[in-house]
Amino acid sequence: MADPRMLRPCYRCLLRDMDKDAYFDQLQAYIDRMAAEERAEEALYEERLQICTSCSELVSGMCRSCGCFVELRAAMRKGRCPYDKW
Ligand code: SF4
Q1: Looking at ligand 1, which atom is closest to the CA of residue 73?
Q2: So where are the chain's domains?
Q3: How close is the Cα of 20 to the center of ligand 1, in Å?
Q4: In angstroms, what is the span from residue 66 Cα to ligand 1's centroid?
Q5: % the chain with pLDDT above 70
Q6: In this predicted model, what pLDDT tens digit does every residue of 57-86 receive, in sequence order?
Q7: Is 63 in a helix, a strand, or coil?
Q8: pTM of the shown model
Q9: By CB neighbour count within 10 A (0-12 exposed, 13-18 middle, 19+ buried), where does 40 fall?
Q10: Does pLDDT of 14 surpass 60?
Q11: What's the CA gap between 41 and 59, in Å, rounded?
């Protein structure tokens, strides 16, 4: 039987306490639930991520410069790169 903690969103867990796949699923679900007016257009989102994937600051999905998950930052319409690459 699956761990019941993995069947519902957890907003107060530390990363070390979470299953990595579940954490990614929650991050993606958070992005999917963003209001349209807060969310970057899909083409802009993909363009931003393309830039991140060629940047030396990207490590395991996180930006070493700002410490954020770039997929979340890039999804925000008002999101910006700390080095103004996008
Ligand atoms: S947000 Fe900017 S500095 Fe960070 S990984 Fe992306 S391009 Fe690089």
Answers
A1: 1
A2: 1-33, 40-86
A3: 22
A4: 8
A5: 86
A6: 999 899 999 999 999 999 999 999 999 999
A7: strand
A8: 0.81
A9: buried
A10: yes
A11: 24
